[in-house]
Specification:
about 375 residues; about 20% helix; 7 helices; alpha+beta; nine-stranded antiparallel sheet
Length: about 375
């Protein structure tokens, strides 16, 4: 194998696919590196940890076709520090690889490309097209509510529901629920699947300001996101996802409208006495025209009050401060609507108009 490529382009491609390279404790040494495959006038780069794979291609002058696996960290570090505009990489039959750029030369021992596992192919029905900014915002506004432990693996991902020109993302971790909905141009059959949060984090990192939409292909067990020349392939999560519609209260005794920033600032102030070692819920008392927020811990107590429009019966209720702040900061609206039905029932956070998001948080019993 022998090729010449633009140094900056190759460095950027390596850094992006490197995020899918397996850790150094893998049982398969080949997936601990980046696969370089020179064919035609393109150089293909792949990182794959058997769960998520990232693949891309850049233009290159191919003098001798071939493939090699190189240590990802070394390759990325070398490319970032090369002095010239172009780099030449050549590998022989013994996998000895030379990297040359001007007067700079490195020699690395690679791994036979035949040992690299093949990325899963995704074939299926009509592809789904979503604007980059829309998907990026939808993931950002739900991913915080995914589970972080594997006790129920299905909840470590986000459920996608696609039908009738609509896309809905749902995340749940047993204590809170996050739902984001948007209109998209899709008229195919109904799709419902769960994508690991790790995969979606990598997809978001690859999005930019380009107008080209993300193309999503969905298979039986795998999914592929095509973004600006990159393909992100991932397994889908198996299992039964929460029937979240049944968990959302249908009757509410109190409706509250409050300025989002004022509510966030007040919770952050009263949370100053709460930390990882000193834990306590925040207490919210909803009156006719205000919300009184307080916390009491071994360090002391804090009290605050903000204006709000309350319609219905007053309620005193406790919440985990982090869960409430995560939801409010994801809203991206100046004012939110809160729905409550009692001190032991969840709180629902909605936009002032429409149904673009819904956040639900379970209460904490106050002592």
């Amino acid at each position: 194998m022998k090729f010449t490529a633009n140094t900056a382009q190759l460095a950027k491609a390596c850094q992006n696919v490197q995020r899918a390279v397996a850790s150094k404790n893998s049982s398969i040494p080949a997936i601990e590196g980046i696969l370089l495959d020179a064919r035609g006038n393109r150089l293909y780069l792949t990182g794959y940890d058997l769960e998520v794979g990232i693949k891309t291609a850049i233009e290159a002058q191919i003098d001798e076709e071939g493939a090699i696996i190189l240590n990802d960290q070394l390759l990325c570090d070398i490319l970032r520090r090369l002095p010239g505009e172009f780099v030449e990489i050549e590998a022989d039959d013994r996998f000895l690889t030379e990297i040359r750029c001007g007067e700079t030369k490195f020699s690395l021992i690679g791994i036979d490309a035949q040992e690299y596992p093949e990325l899963p192919s995704v074939t299926g029905g009509e592809p789904v097209l979503v604007e980059q900014e829309i998907l990026r915002d939808m993931v950002r506004q739900t991913i915080f509510a995914t589970a972080t432990t594997e006790s129920k693996a299905i909840y470590t991902g986000i459920e996608f529901e696609i039908e009738n020109n609509g896309l809905r993302l749902v995340a749940v971790d047993g204590f809170r629920l996050a739902i984001r909905s948007e209109k998209i141009d899709y008229t195919g059959e109904k799709l419902c699947f769960v994508v690991p949060s790790k995969t979606l984090s990598e997809v978001v990192k690859l999005t930019g300001e380009e107008n080209e939409p993300i193309r999503i292909g969905v298979g039986r067990r795998h999914i592929v996101f095509e973004i600006d020349g990159y393909s992100v392939v991932s397994r889908l999560l198996d299992g039964e996802f929460l029937n979240y519609r049944e968990s959302i209260p249908s009757v509410n005794n109190l409706k509250v409208k409050v300025n989002t920033k004022l509510f966030i600032d007040s919770i952050e102030r009263t949370s100053l006495l709460i930390n990882d070692r000193v834990k306590s819920p925040i207490k919210c008392i909803f009156d006719t025209e205000s919300i009184r927020i307080s916390s009491t811990t071994a360090l002391g107590s804090a009290n605050d009050r903000i204006d709000a429009q309350c319609e219905g019966t007053g309620i005193e209720i406790g919440f985990n401060n982090k869960y409430m702040l995560d939801a409010l900061k994801a809203c991206d609206v100046d004012e939110v609507t809160l729905l409550l039905s009692g001190p032991l029932n969840p709180i629902i956070i909605l936009p002032p108009q429409g149904e673009s998001f819904l956040y639900m948080i379970l209460p904490v019993v106050l002592k």
